[in-house]
Automatic annotation (TrEMBL):
Biological processes per GO annotation: lipid catabolic process
Protein name (database record): Patatin
Active site annotation, chain numbering: S31, D174
Position of sequence motif DGA/G: 174-176
Naturally occurring in which organism (per UniProt): Actinoplanes siamensis
Pfam families: Patatin
Lineage summary: Bacteria, Bacillati, Actinomycetota, Actinomycetes, Micromonosporales
Motif residue range(s): GXSXG: 29-33
Ranges that cross the membrane: none
Superkingdom: Bacteria
Amino acid sequence: MTGIAWHLGLLCGLQRAGVPLTDAGTVIGTSAGSVVGTLVAAGADLEAAVHAQQQEVARPGGRPAPRPGSWLASLSVLLDPSLPPREARARVGAMALAASTQDEASWLARIGGLLPVHEWPAGDLRLVVVDTADGQDRVLDAASGAPLPHAVAASCAVPGLMPPVTIGGRRYMDGGVRLGAGADLAAGAERLVVIAPMAALDRDRIVAEMAASGAGKTLLIEPDAAALEAFGPDVMDPVRRPAAVRAGLRQGEELAGAVRPIWC
């Protein structure tokens, strides 16, 4: 929740400062980035998207925000150095399948309501997912045959919080289970800007991915201390969205000078 809000605010702040990243030739979205990447690729109005994120919301029924205990359990498995990465991802996949969460149809409907389009937009949009059965990561695009809402819903299906999504008879979960930011998937890019709301979890891997891309100019953007404070202790808490989007707007405008020589 907060990652999407901050990400949109950041892009809008950069746009206001005259550095629109929305003209990217390739957009690679993972987890929260799958929603934001789709909005960007579809040409959505960033100002309108930011306005929507700024609206105050109440937790359903006045209940407290759900605690991300199962997600944190998944993260501990992924970060276990004794496990090969793909084995760790497969274990998390089993945890995701066993979790008692909302049904898949409701999750797809929820994601579909966030998207301005339900068909793949023109251009090169790539969304990262992970197979729950074997931990294999996969990149979905317009040629993959996956319906766009299913691809987005799968890419941000946080294990233990959202249900895995069925595509072509396989069940897929959050692309963030791959760890890193998918920057290595931008191989051959001339310019690469990586926006990672949770970069602190795996910064070294992200930096290595950026180097592996071979891009001539690269920049990693992550939340600053004030933005992390705006996120609060639970990144899935919708009540924190207005604070997160404001933090993104501020940071985007402040970072324009650093982004401009990379992008323009």
